[in-house]
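Q: I'm writing up a methods section and want to include an example of the input and output format. Could you take the sequence below and give the corresponding predicted structure tokens, formatted cleanly so I can copy it straight into the document?
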Amino acid sequence: MSEEEQTTESSHNSVIASKKRFSLSPIQKRFTIVVGVLLLATSIYAGYSVWQDRGVDAASCVSRRYSFGNQNKCVKYIQQLLNAADIDVSLKVTGTFDKSTKNAVVAFQQGVELTGSGIVDLSTWQQLCAVATASVDELYEPVGCQTFDLDTSAKNTLSTNFNNQDGSSPTQVSNSDWFSIVSMPDTQSEVVRDVKDGVSPRGLVSKDMQWIVNNRNDRNIQAVVAPGDLTHAAAIGTNTSVNTKIRKMWASISKSYKILDDAGVPYSITTGNHDTAAMSLNTKKNSYGARSIEKNKATLYRDTSLFNQTFTLDRAGMMGITLKDTGHAENAYRTFRVKDTDWLILTMEYAPRREVLDWAKAVVSSHATYNVIIATHAYMRSGSTKLITTCDASDCVSAQVVHDELVAGYSNVKMLFSGHTIVESVVEEKMSNGNKVIQYRTTMHACMMDRVCNNPIRVLKIDLVHNNVTSELCTDITATTAKNCKTKVSSGMQFITSNQQATAIAN
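A: Here is the clean output for your methods example:
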């Protein structure tokens, strides 16, 4: 909410039998048998648990794409498979898709007569699993291949929509003339109410998520974007009661997003002020009001531990993002293609640092043929469409600077999503370069502003034929229906197409 608020090689070991005979007493024999049985049972259980865990961990890997920059368990499995594939490489199994891993992937692909892209896609997974399975003497398939289906048709195509880009073309996700993106900032008050009422994880935010899953085909939903304040507080201190409430809220929002994970729906999220260690809960009994920690505030805004512990990079919806900072997902981007248009979603932390803004500008500049959508938390002033000109931390740049240098500075920027300050607004602005940018703010804080406690989301239909964007802001969502929707159409957009891309590249 805003500053205005008050409140884990198997090896065959040689067994050397001793020639010496031992003589045991009856008691010793009974004791030995008991211990042996216990050890055997423990080993079987442990072995089964490890096998089971490996299967669970790997279950979703083969349906997704991986490339340079990815960091997660699936990358570890890729590295293990490459080491078993007899291509004369010995990779360190780190879980980071580094240059050595990319080179090994290229070598493997060329060896099995695939295009040496360095990207582990469906066809590469097929060959990796087939070759490695033949190379490894195991009773089960190599890790990463447990759920692999030799049918080349992907069963969860949406989960492969997004992939890291290192110069390769984005993944084609739709040939439709239109698609949708869902923006849902500031879910904090709904999370507070879910935890307080004891209805999590099937509370208000979960209804939003289930609606997205149930309607993604009909509405061609290609992404969910959350510009911060996923939950209400993230400062873990010495107060046990407060810490418990905070952890419950993060568990609640995590379970809600798991609905998207399970369905393979990609999402791009970033931090708001409430997702940093600068925000705690009031110690007043039964109070969920937030308080800002003034001491070391600038430093605490950079402490996003709970955010990154909760939204780890091996979550299905998080797959394929390109990070600015290793292990930190708040500053990241991902790309995808719809028909003849390429898209890039870029997220920026709350109160972005100068280095983050410069990174964002470099990303946008290096993807000049992509239509860019930016998500950042604090942008417009409370109750106004004017931009925030101040900064909450000593090392950050204001929203006005973000606007002037990034939003208005590049003609491929098409939309911006924000939250933070109360009320919603849509600002269409034609920049000096002739480019039109739609800037959306969605901050209803319904549970705090009224007694109804609804759960608003904004659904954007992007029409590539008519060059417009239709916004539906709905304030009452169930698993199947969206009610109380306010519609606004923004026309005259200038989306970059393949023909324009070719022209830009030629120039």
